[in-house]
């Protein structure tokens, strides 16, 4: 059994920081190094959570052979794995009653579009929504996406089992594994609005959309009255 060496305290690591920028004050540097120690602790916490996630016991066996409508015809859940052992399904908000796909879901998916070749070196990735496949393909083309694979859960059995028992038009992030021919549930995002802290929009941790990580590094932050849009007018 490998024993991990004790970690150097974050404050000690931060004290080794040699960064310095033009005209910064001693007050700024002191506050920045204190923040750096917290960032190191955050990185370590993220690693601990990821390790705990990987050590989850076996999840439940998938109860049925789900069938989706793909861009080239019907496909089974097993087909979505391809030659991989792990599959991520992102269920996005584009139900039959919705005129256009959810802007927040679209923002997230746009951030993944260019990373599909990298992602698929390790795992399989599928985007699933409840609208008919023709609508999903039309919306995909309108965004100029060529690499994300979209599938319709038109019958809704997968959505009801793994996203919303009420078949609500809500997002879902589901990780499935296939070992020795058996498909099992591994992990799903389970944070919801009831778990949000006061004054906070519901979110997962870590948030899968890098947009929010970028904004978190700015003095303005995420803001409280702004969300991504499907289209931006000139100058917006």
Which SSEs are present, and which pair or pack?
Elements: H1 10-15, H2 26-54, E1 67-70, E2 73-76, H3 77-81, E3 86-91, H4 103-113, H5 116-119, E4 124-129, H6 133-143, E5 150-152, H7 157-162, E6 172-179, E7 182-188, H8 210-216
Parallel strand pairs: 3-4, 4-5
Antiparallel strand pairs: 1-2, 3-6, 6-7
Written account of the structure:
The protein contains 8 helices and 7 strands; from the N terminus they run ααββαβααβαβαββα. 33% of the residues lie in helices and 16% in strands. The radius of gyration is 21 Å and the shape is globular. The chain has a 5-stranded mixed beta sheet with strand order 5-4-3-6-7. Strands 1-2 form a two-stranded antiparallel ribbon. The termini are far apart. The protein is an alpha/beta fold. It has helices at residues 10-15, 26-54, 77-81, 103-113, 116-119, 133-143, 157-162, 210-216; strands at residues 67-70, 73-76, 86-91, 124-129, 150-152, 172-179, 182-188. The mean pLDDT is 93.
């Amino acid at each position: 059994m490998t024993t991990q060496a004790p970690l150097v305290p974050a404050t000690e690591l931060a004290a080794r920081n040699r960064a310095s920028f033009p005209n910064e004050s001693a007050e700024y540097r002191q506050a920045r190094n204190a923040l750096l120690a917290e960032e190191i602790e955050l990185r370590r916490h993220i690693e601990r959570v990821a390790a705990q996630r990987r050590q989850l016991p076996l999840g439940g066996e998938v109860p049925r052979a789900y069938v989706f409508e793909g861009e080239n015809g019907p496909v089974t859940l097993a087909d979505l794995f391809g030659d991989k052992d792990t599959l991520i399904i992102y269920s996005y908000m584009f139900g039959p009653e919705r005129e256009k796909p959810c802007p927040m879901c679209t923002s997230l998916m746009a951030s993944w579009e260019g990373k599909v070749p990298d992602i698929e070196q390790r795992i399989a990735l599928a985007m699933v929504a409840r609208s008919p496949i023709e609508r999903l393909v039309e919306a995909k083309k309108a965004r100029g996406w060529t690499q994300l694979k979209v599938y319709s859960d038109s019958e809704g059995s997968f959505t009801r089992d793994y996203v919303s028992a009420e078949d609500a038009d809500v997002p879902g992030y589901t990780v499935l594994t296939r070992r020795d021919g058996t498909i099992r549930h591994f992990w799903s995002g389970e944070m919801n609005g009831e778990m949000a802290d006061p004054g906070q929009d519901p979110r997962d941790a870590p948030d899968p959309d890098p947009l929010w990580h970028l904004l978190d590094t700015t003095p303005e932050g995420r803001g409280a009255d702004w969300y991504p849009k499907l289209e931006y007018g000139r100058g917006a």
